[in-house]
Structure formats: C-alpha cells, structure tokens
Amino acid sequence: MKIAITTWGNRVSPVFDAAKTLLIADIENQSINSKKYESFQPDDVSALAALLTREKVTALVCGAISETYAARLVENRIRMFPFVTGNAMNILDCLATHNTIKPAFMMPGCTPVSENKCQPL
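Predicted structure:
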C-alpha cells in the first residue's frame, strides 16, 4: 500500500491549501519499505490526483481540507484520512502497524466517523 502525507517540515501540514510537499511511503508487511518527497501545487487537484495515480498512492493523509478538494480526490479512488495532526513519521508508523489513524492524531474537535469524513465532537 502506498500512502501520501501532506507535510510542513516533519509534521502533517495543518491546512491542505498551504502544503506544497508530499511524503510518499510504501508500506508492506507492517513496515515502511521506502519513502520519498514530491512537490505539488494544492490548488491544482487534477494534477495532484494524476501524481497520486502515477505513484500508485491509494490513500492521502492531510490536515484540514475543503470538502470540494476531498471529494475530487475520492472521485479518483484516493482514500482520505483528513483532519490529522502530528509528526508525519509517527503517523506512517501507526498506519503501517494498525492500518488506521489513532484518535490521538486527530485535530482537536474532530473524531473520525468514516474513512472519508471527520465529525466535530
């Protein structure tokens, strides 16, 4: 499984629109096999979807994201983990071992209700 995380330094970018870097990691057998960084333009969702498809990424982890952008990515068969916060490598480790995001990594005031949505508390 390939995962992409929008990053700001070593953390998940708090706002999708402000991110310009993706951390792309290949996870297999509960370990991170490889990782690399790619630049992207958050306002060009079509180009981002094409990049994720080309890289065979199946899921995107990000902070706050507009419903319009999230819907466009889901239309392109990208599984969304929105409203996530914290150290990007810690989140990758969590996904590798648990295949999900722990509640501790959710932004304050959010709790996951499905793989594609976040519901305020």
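Summary: Residues 113-121 have pLDDT under 50 and may be disordered.
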